[in-house]
User: Fold Copper-exporting P-type ATPase from Tumebacillus algifaecis.
Amino acid sequence: MSEQKVTLQVTGMTCAACSARIEKVVSKMDGVETANVNLTMARATVTFDENKLQAGDIIQRIVRLGFGASELAEEGTDNASEKLWRRQVALFIFSAVLSLPFLIGMFEMFGATLLPDFLMNPWVMLAMATPVQFVAGYSFYVGGYKALRNKSANMDVLVALGTSAAYFYSLWLILRGEEHVYFETSMIIITLILLGKIFEQLAKTRTSDAIKKLMHMQAKTARVVRGGVELEVKIEEVVLGDVVVVRPGEKIPVDGSVLDGQSSIDESMLTGESIPIDKKPGDPVYGATLNKNGALSFRAEKVGQDTALAQIIRVVEEAQGSKAPIQRMSDVISGIFVPIVVGIAVLTFVVWYFLVDGGLQDALTIALMNATAVLVIACPCALGLATPTSIMVGTGKGAENGILFKGGEHLENLQKVSVILLDKTGTITKGQPTVTDVVLLSDQFHSEQDLLLLAASAEKRSEHPLATAIVKAGASLGEVQDPEEFEAITGRGVRAVAQGRKLLIGTRRLMQEAGIDYAAATEGLARLESDGKTVMILSVDGQVSGLLAVADTVKESSQAAIAELKGMGLKVVMITGDNHKTAQAIAAQVGVDEVLAEVLPEEKADAVKRYKSAGQRVAMVGDGINDAPALAMADVGIAVGTGADVAIEAADVTLMGAELEGVARAVRLSKATIRNIRQNLFWALAYNVVGIPIAAAGLLSPWVAGAAMAFSSVSVVINALRLKRVNIDA
Assistant:
């Protein structure tokens, strides 16, 4: 199978029934793995096997359903959206101008005569109502026809049925010579629904503000050195390898590594952390961050769509277009809602015509008006918008705070977790250990420095953080030579031949497996480990020769962040490859509920599995690389990153900052978003559940039902926008 993913711009969707219909049909195509249609963003994301079909086949299938579809292209999308928006506004103005006299005419029921008599002539009313019905209301007929042709029903069906009933009934009355007609009902319903769509669109554009803000953060130009000359070029013209110069107060244009200079850089737009980060030669810098107080020159290493900012935008866009599990409920309801409503409307008509007002002169009028009110009040627009609008605002707010959710499902799942497993190194601690103690245990060496230099030589080819600390300490004493042989033993240590001597550096288990007696090291091990240090036994030529102790400092915010998580009722567990004494010493500093020590990297996933088997919902927090299996096994994998692309790709949620407090903020945002979705679903359903019986009882005028239906969608979007003001810091 050759898996491909395509994002399509879909036009013509008016309610959740449309998006559910497209999703259902596309999902059943042979070769389609997943299909996700987002009503709010008017997008469909489809994963498919390109050996079985192409993106064009999917587009054709959507078009045959009666909708428009094309591969997403940003510039073309903007132009098409702008054109559609202008047409929507023009139709509303056209409809409002023709409907206004009839709205004013309604004041006559209160005794006020505000219109000239000729406007009340039925034939004049017919002339004004006809263009509203068939020009402004044309899209409802088209949408309704396409839906019915594909054996489904949507909001357009209800609007077209309701307004047509009022229009053609009035036409019939005119032909019979009647004076009292009901054109104002159909005209005002159409006008109000068009107005509601405009308000809805205005509110929806604010839900995607986060993406626009991120895009606008990028610098427009860059100052590069070419041929010894400093040139200012457009950011699109920066190429890999360019030396870029940045002055104090300027934005970093692209990603790279510092070549010269020192400065502090505000990376809050990436990480959400407000404290500037000091940069020196060799340190990474990221595009769109702000250079504070020093001049820097750096080499461009990532440009265009490869920069961290571009990746963040891509992740947020995909998350906003994804669907949370909670939305399935509204999709199911929307799929069966319209046929049920049509049935209720028919029943309403029958009851009012034959039973309630049977025999009365106005029976037909009353039955028709009440059935129309049922059709109009029942449109499931708000239900369709309830979930995607909250997901869009929630993921956008997360991105603004350095929290990247890779999908709506993760935003929903995080608030359900009951246990959080925290990897120690790089998550609770800074992940930058340093050598604190060197202990000689034999007379093979003249000094601790000789022992350390040999150990550094053995560890030179290792990429483990502890090895890095040893090599760095050795390099401060002299030249660190390459080992003749080297083997990394996962979770235990290294075996090497350096300067002609056979070395083993690592844990008790490594010594046991090699058959080396380490009794002489026992006392020193206990003493150093009780101080929370990671201690490695060093064996030379089969004899224990010394101990190397390395300490990793706990992050300043870890203790407070863990206390916050426990305050939320979560069980916090630290998981580490360190021995029990070292792990307990760190655990005592930060206050976790439980410690899992001496856990090999491949065993971390098993630990996650055990908690899940016990019925817990588990979130795993790690650095996104070594913890990958455990992150994948957890219900929610959270990578604590620093803006690196590896961290972005590694987990369900990525914290762009390095501090653990981001986990608590992510949980708060998840809880707030799901609470907001539930509010939206409640009010959307309550509106229909309450409104339909009132309309069926004859207590709701059709045009009032139209106004209520139009503004229910707006209220749902406005409620979603409240998420922007939610405080996730405490």
Observations:
- The domain at 432-553 is CATH 3.40.1110.10 (Calcium-transporting ATPase, cytoplasmic domain N).
- The chain is about 50% helix and 20% strand.
- Residues 661-696 form the longest helix (36 residues).
- Residues 437 and 720 are 56 Å apart (CA to CA).
